[in-house]
């Protein structure tokens, strides 16, 4: 198990697509630019939704309205992040897959996607779900604070990959 990851990254680095990315100078900067633009979209959507849940922004609109407007941006940008991230991994497998900071980032991402699904799911049947009772409003706030902390952690870990020893 301990040796299978380096063996996998070595194999991935020798595939034609990886070799093509490694030898074409503009690909990594271009894909990173796409990754950063998608980060801007995801973070903007996340902050607008969660600050509204906490009552700190867009208070003229119901939480349900804000969530309906920006949730598609959140999921759409996440798809772009996953695809661009995959290309970055294929281009530099060891740098990412064997990096503890990258692994931490992926773990936080799995948790935050689960929390986002918990938040988004009831809204499909009842757009006012999180505003219906004081207890639900409290739960929504807890979800929002936890999610925001994780998103900030993900951005931090993403940037830190470049400086993390192993
Ligand atoms: C499945 C989803 C994702 C994958 C596979 C992925 C993968 C990667 C990879 C491989 C890098 C390059 C790191 C390096 O070589 O220095 C990177 C950079 C980065 N990622 Fe992601 N990522 C994903 C989602 C996200 C999300 C959701 C965020 C934040 C909202 C994020 C934020 C960042 C940041 C801030 C960087 C550094 C960009 C730079 O310095 O140019 N990533 N990501």
**pLDDT < 50 stretches:** none
What's the overall average pLDDT, rounded?
A: 96
Structural class based on helices, strands and sheet pairing: mainly alpha
Could you tell me the radius of gyration in angstroms? 19 Å
Bound molecules: protoporphyrin IX containing FE
Give the count of helical stretches.
7
**Strand tally:** 0
* H/E element sequence: HHHHHHH
N-to-C CA distance: 17 Å
Helical residue percent band: over 70%
The main sheet comes to: none
Overall tally of domains: 1
Shape: elongated
Structure report:
It is a single chain. This protein has one domain (4-163). The two termini are 17 Å apart. It has helices at 4-13, 16-22, 27-53, 63-91, 93-97, 100-125, 134-160. The mean pLDDT is 96. With 166 residues, it is mainly alpha-helical. It binds protoporphyrin IX containing FE. Residues 32, 35-36, 39, 42-43, 81-82, 85-86, 88-89, 92, 95-96, 109, 151, 154-155, 158-159, 161-162 line the site of protoporphyrin IX containing FE.
């Amino acid at each position: 198990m301990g040796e299978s990851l380096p063996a996998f990254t070595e194999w991935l680095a020798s595939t034609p697509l990886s070799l093509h990315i490694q030898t074409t100078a503009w690909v990594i900067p271009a894909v990173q630019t796409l990754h950063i633009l998608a980060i801007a979209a995801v973070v903007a959507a996340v902050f607008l939704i969660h600050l509204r849940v906490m009552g700190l922004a867009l208070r003229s609109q119901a939480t349900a309205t804000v969530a309906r407007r920006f949730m598609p941006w959140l999921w759409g940008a996440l798809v772009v992040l996953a695809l661009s991230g995959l290309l970055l991994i294929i281009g530099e497998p060891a740098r990412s897959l064997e990096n503890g900071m990258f692994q931490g980032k992926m773990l936080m991402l799995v948790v935050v996607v689960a929390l986002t699904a918990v938040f988004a799911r009831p809204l499909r049947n009842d757009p006012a779900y999180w505003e219906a009772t004081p207890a639900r409003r409290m739960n929504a706030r807890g979800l929002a604070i936890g999610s925001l902390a994780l998103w900030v952690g993900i951005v931090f870990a993403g940037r830190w990959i470049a400086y993390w020893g192993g």
